[in-house]
Specification:
Belongs to the ferrochelatase family. By secondary structure, the protein is of the alpha/beta class. 46% of the residues lie in helices and 15% in strands. A 6-stranded mixed sheet has the order 2-1-3-4-10-9, sandwiched between helices. β3 (120-125), α5 (132-148) and β4 (155-158) form a beta-alpha-beta unit.
């Protein structure tokens, strides 16, 4: 029996043309249209178009500065590495890449798996920390695509996985290696470790998302692994809509730091993308240096050779057909569809 593993991701335009970026932005804003309250689909599409037009020029400029986003090729490389790992484990599975906002879309990946005649599907979001508009939304897109095809196929969904022990070691060792290479002592009182997490509208937290809890606990564990007693946390918010977002903003955190230098760890990301290469490396660096701070940003370990093993571990129970609880999977709290599994839920609910 062949299992199709749909590796779910965000997507970003590799070529920053106006058409590509405008379509990309429209899809994002339409996907989050409910943040501004009840409205018709026509009104939501018009509002999404307006927001996209307002943002497109500045985002094109960001992409041009970084030479186009590397997210998509990095995601494809991760899926290829996962396929190799699954093959080495003698697991009958085929990996597909599906993006929320750029080609190949999630629906494209599902359709390809359908054409290939796989016998079951596993949805695996490559988001380190489970969020409503990323992890949960991408899985919902996958199941909607299956329904659109009227395809009667078993579907397994994996959500939160930041507690995977090897993933924790990847992130902690990556931070320490970078600090060593730069000659930095993370325990020095004049060096502030700042975790930068992708922001989220508080609407999602009010609706039951545990994203902020996951960010807090993961940062605590990373600091403990590194022997760092004190650190800061800030969120990268996108103020395109006038709605409440997670606080504090990372810009405020950095400009108020009582230290000589900051080391920024982009804790929410498993790819280099505009949020790291532009928002952090250019915009946040500029703000830090304006207040006299030396600025360091930890690279995202997207190509760590251990990561494919993490991904394979996450899908192995479903591909090999054994009880996922053996690998400590439990029913997800953020997406309560029966059978949606994660590593984050407490043992007793």
């Amino acid at each position: 029996m062949t299992t199709g593993v749909v590796v779910l991701n965000f997507g970003e335009p590799a070529e920053p043309t106006r058409e590509n970026v405008l379509d990309y932005l429209e899809r994002i804003f339409m996907n989050n249209a409910d943040l501004e309250g009840d409205t018709t689909e026509e009104e939501a599409r018009e509002r999404s178009r307006q927001l996209a037009e307002r943002r497109v020029s500045s985002l094109i400029e960001e992409y041009e500065e970084i030479g186009g986003s590397p997210l998509d090729p990095q995601a494809k490389a991760q899926a290829d590495a996962l396929q190799t790992e699954l093959d080495e484990r003698n697991l009958d599975a085929k990996a597909y890449v599906g993006m929320q906002f750029t080609e190949p879309f999630i629906a494209d990946a599902v359709e390809q798996a359908h054409e290939d005649g796989v016998d079951e599907l596993v949805g695996l979001p490559i988001y380190p920390l489970c969020g409503a508009s990323t992890t949960v939304a991408s899985l919902e897109e996958m199941t909607d695509a299956v329904a659109e095809l009227d395809w009667d196929v078993p579907v397994h969904e994996v959500t939160g996985w930041h507690k995977h022990p090897t993933y924790n070691r990847i992130r902690a060792s990556n931070i320490q290696q970078y600090a060593d290479e730069e000659g930095l002592d993370l325990t020095d009182k004049d060096t502030e470790l700042v975790f930068s997490a992708h922001g989220t509208p508080t609407h999602y937290l009010d609706e039951g998302s545990r994203y902020d809890t996951y960010v807090d606990e993961f940062c605590d564990v990373m600091a403990s692994e590194l022997g760092v007693e004190s650190y800061s946390l800030g969120f990268q918010n996108h103020g395109n809509r006038k709605i409440p977002w997670t606080e504090p903003e990372v810009e405020d955190v950095v400009t108020e730091v009582d230290a000589e230098r900051v080391v920024i760890e982009p804790i929410s990301f498993m790819h280099e993308q505009s949020e790291t290469l532009s928002e952090l490396d250019d915009e946040l660096r500029e703000e830090a240096e304006e207040v006299g701070l030396n600025f360091y940003r930890v690279p995202v370990p997207h190509d760590d050779e251990r990561f494919s093993g993490v991904l394979a571990d996450l899908v192995e129970p479903f591909v090999a057909d054994f009880d996922p609880s053996y690998y400590q999977f439990r029913q997800c709290q953020c997406k309560d569809t029966p059978g949606t599994m994660c590593l984050n839920a407490p043992f007793e609910q």
